[in-house]
Amino acid sequence: MLRIVEETVKAVTPHILGIEAVEGMPEPDPRASVDFMNEWLAKSIPEFGILNTIVFLALNLYSLVRKGHTFPRLEHGTQADLMEGLYKAKGIVPLEFLTLLASPAITSYYSRVDVQELLGFDVTALREEARQREVTRDGGPLPPRDTAAGSENATGEEKE
Amino acid sequence: MIHPREEITGDLKLSTEVAVIGSGAGGATIAKELSEAGRKVVILEAGRHFTREDFNFQMDNAFINMYWYGGQVLTMGTPMFVLPQGKTVGGTTTINSGTCLRMPHRVLKRWHVDHGLWEITEEEMGLYYGAVEEYLFVQKGDPEVIGRNALLFLEGAQKLGLSGGILPRNAKDCEGYGVCAFGCPSGAKQSANVSYIPDAVKAGCDVYTRCMVDEVVVRGGRAVGVKGRFLDTVRDVPGPNLEVEAEVVVLAAGALQSPRMLLAQKICNSSGQVGRNLTIHPCSGSVAVMDEKLGNPKGVPQATYVDEFADDGIMLEGGTLPPLGVAMGVPYKGRRLAEYMRNYPYFGIFGGMLSEHCSTGRVIPNPRDRRRHLISYNLRGEDTAKFKFMVELMAEIWFSLGARSVLSPCVSLPEMRPSDLATFKKQKAKAADWLGVSAYHPLGTCRMGAAPEQSVVKHTGETWDTENLFICDGSIVPTSLGVNPQLTIFSLAMRCAGFVDDRLEQLAGHSAVK
To answer: ipTM of this predicted complex?
Structure first.
C-alpha cells in the first residue's frame, strides 16, 4: 500500500466512524483499518486494489483542490468539514466512492469484539458456548420428516 | 484423507478413477456417493479446510479466508451486485444460511418444455430430494431458536394477509448463533464440510486443498485427467504442480469458475453456450428501527419466508445479521452512522430476492488474467420494477409492525419514514437507483439440455463435446430455480453420481474386452 494511501486510511477512519458524537462507544483504531485493508486487498482481485488506491488518492486530490493540503495534513476540524461536504453529495457515483472509502474503517471497527459486545453481540460468551456444544451427526434422533417447500414443489405438494 | 497444503512440498502426480474439481454441493456429493460405491476419488479444492474451531463468529475473518476474492466478487453492469461465493472445503454450503427448498413444480415443467429434460422426472427428483433431506437433517427451524426478528416479520406479513412460514434448513440441534454465513461454530449446519466430505473421506476419498486446477487434460475427445498448481497457504501464489490421471473428470467448481475454466481452455463450447444464461438472485436487505429489542444477532439468518409473490418471482427470506453486516449497508457515514448503529439491538432485519426473472448475464475469462473471471449482468425491464416492489413490500411489512424507519437501497431515499412509503411507491424504478445490493445463487452457465446445439451438458451431466467429462454444480441448472438452489444441486449431484458410476463400469468393461 502506498504511504499516502496508508496515511489517508488512518486519517479518515475517525471521521467515517463518527464515534466521538456517541457516548460510550470505544475509540477507533486507525491502524486496524490499515491492517484490515492490507489483508483484504491481498485476497481481492488486483483491479479492486487499484480502485481502492484511486479512491484514497482522489480524496487527497479533492482535499488539495478544496483546502490546499493533502487530507492527512489538514487539521482535524478541516478534515471533518471536508468529509461533511462529501456526505451531502447526491448520486450513485459519490455514494459508491464513499462506500469504498469507508469499508476499511467500518469493517475493522464493527468486527471488534468490544464494539460488538457493546451492541449486544457477546462474541466471547457465544464462542465459549459453541465450543462446548459440538453437534455430531451420530447418535441424535432423526428429525421429523418435514418437507417444507415454501411453494408447490417437485413432488407436487401444495403451498402451506 | 484431507491433505493440508502444508504437507505438499513438491510436484505431485496422482492416478485415480475420478477427479473432482471443487468440494461444494455438487463435488462433495458426487465424491461421497462414488467413494461409498468403492470408487477411487480425488477432490481438488481451491480453498482451505476449516473446522468449527476456526469459525470464530467474525464476518471479516470469513470474508478474507473463506470467500472468493475476499468476498468481493462483483458483477459489471447496472446495478453492480456483490456476488459472494465460498472458497473453502464445502464450497458455498459452508458459508450459506442453510435454506433447503425443493424446486417448484412449475420450474421442473419449464425444464421439460423449454429444455427437453424429460428424463428428469418429478418422481425421480422426489426420491433424491427425500434422500438428501434425510441425510442432511433438513427440517423447519425451531421457533424457540430462530429468533424474534424472523418471527416478528412473519407475524407482520401474516397480519397483512401474506402467505409465509418457517424455512426448512439443513441444521441439526441448531442453537441460532446467527453466523451461518461465516461458518457454523457448533457444527449444527449440515454443510458439505461436515457431512458429505467427512463421509467421502471415511470411504477413502482424498481431498487436496489449496489446489487450483488450470486444465482438464483431453486426449482423443476424452477427458483423461487434470493439471493444476498448489497455491500458497495464504496468498494465491502458485507453488508445486499437480497432475492427476483420471478415467472420469467431474467439474464442480460452481457456476462462475466452471465456465471460466472451460472458456479459458476453449473446450466444450461447440454450442456457444458456455458462460451464457447466467441467472442470479438479486437481493436487498431491509433494516427497520423498531421500538423493542429483537435480540440480534441470536437467531437464524434465514429463518422465515414470505412467498405470497413467489409465482411472480419475489421471495422474502430472513433474518438477522451481526453488527458488521448491517453497518456495511448503512447509507450514512460519520456521526449519523454511529448514531444509527447504536440502535442495533432494535433493528428489524430481513431480506428479499428476485427469485425468478428475465434478466440474464454472462461469465467470461478476464482478458488480463484468464485464471479469473468477469461477470456481466444488468437488471432489465420489468425486473427493475419487481426489485422496487420487493423493497416496498418489506418496508410495508415493517411499518405495519410499527417501525420508525426502514433503510432502502434506493439512492434517492436511503431511509424511509412511514409517511414516505406512498411517495416511494409512486417513483419510477431505474436499475441505476440501487446501491449496495448483493446477489446469490449463480446458475445456468453450462446448462443442461436435450439439444447439443443449445446446451453444454446432457441430462446426465456429461458434456456433449468431451467424453468422460461431467459437470456437476449450479452451472448445469438451466433456469433460475425460484428458491435457494443448494438442495437441488445436492440432489442433481446424487443423480449424476449414478451416471458417472455407469461410465466407469463401461470403461472397465471396455478395458476387459481389450
So the answer is: 0.90
